[in-house]
Amino acid sequence: MTASFAQIRLPLLAAVLASGLAGCASTPPPTGELSAAQQAVMRAADADADQYAPQDLNAARTALSAAQAALSQGKDEDARRMALAAAAEADLAYAHSRETLTQAELNQRRTEIAELRSRLQGGDR
Q1: Tell me, what DSSP letter sits at residue 28?
Q2: C-alpha distances in angstroms, 73 versus 66, 77, 106?
Q3: Cα separation of 23 and 71, whole Å?
Q4: How many Å apart are CA 37 and CA 92, to the nearest integer?
Q5: Which of 27, 51, 76, 102 is most deeply packed, by most CB within 10 A?
Q6: Which segments of the chain have a pLDDT < 70?
Q7: Rounded Cα distance, 31 and 81, in Å
Q8: End-to-end CA distance of the chain
Q9: What span, in angstroms and rounded, lies between the C-alpha atoms of 78 and 67?
Q10: What would the pLDDT profile of 104-115 be if each residue is shown by its tens digit?
């Protein structure tokens, strides 16, 4: 038995409305991602990444600028992608900067230990 138009009208109408609503629904602008990226860049800068990880920090700043430009042009997905990349680059800059500072501190402590050992062994009387 074949279905008549009257029998498929309601499911067809529901399908058309659902697809129309899905087409109108969009994701919100990536303001949260942009804010997180800005904070990550500031955190890296505060950790002296300008001095110890300048390439990573510049990459983060470039990606953040691209994200802001994409958002202003209404390209939300590009803005979201670039904001996430900026946050990742800033986190990398922060990590590299902290690693460099920690390594310098470790080297200083090793030098101090060597000097103390030398004194204890009678090298400096």
Answers
A1: P
A2: 11, 11, 48
A3: 20
A4: 12
A5: 76
A6: 1-26, 123-125
A7: 12
A8: 110
A9: 7
A10: 999 999 999 999
H helices then E strands: how many in the chain? Answer: 5, 0
Question: What are the CA-CA distances from residue 102 to residues 48, 106, 110 (Å)?
Answer: 12, 6, 12
- Element at 61 (helix H, strand E): helix 54-72
Q: Residue 33: what pLDDT?
A: 94
Give the pLDDT confidence score for residue 125 in this predicted structure. Answer: 53
Position 28 scores a pLDDT of 86
CA distances from 124 to 45, 114, 119 (A): 42, 12, 5
CA distance 93 to 43: 9
DSSP conformational letter for 73: T
Write down the pLDDT at residue 14: 66
Spatial distance between the Cα atoms of 53 and 36, rounded to a whole number of angstroms = 20
Contacts of 63 (CB under 8 A, 6+ apart): 37, 82, 83, 85, 86, 89
From the CA atom positions of the chain, what is the Rg in Å?
A: 29
